[in-house]
Amino acid sequence: MSLSELSTCTTILVGRLASYDGSTLIARNEDAGTAVDPKKFVVVKPGNQPRDYHAKLSKFTLKLPDNPLRYTAIPNAVATSGIWGEAGINADNVAMSATETITTNERILGADPLVTNGVGEEDLLTVTLPYIHSAREGVKRVGEILKTYGTYESNGIIFSDVNEIWYMETAGGHHWVAQRIPDDAYVVAPNQTGIQEIDFDDPDHFMFADDLQQFVKDNHLNLGQGFNFREIFGSHSQLDHHYNTPRAWYAQRYFSSDSVTDQDPMSDSLPFISYADKKITIEDIKYVLSSHYQDTPYDPFALGASRATAPFRPIGINRTQELCVLQLRPNLPAGRSAIQWVAMAANPFNTLVPFFTNVNDTPASYRDTTNSLDSHNAYWANRLISLIVADHFQLLISDVESYQEKTLGYGHQRIAELDQQLNGLTGDELTEALTSANQITADHVMAATDELLTTLVAKGGNQVLGAFTRENY
Question: Which UniProt keywords apply (predicted)?
Answer without folding.
Answer: Dipeptidase, Hydrolase, Protease
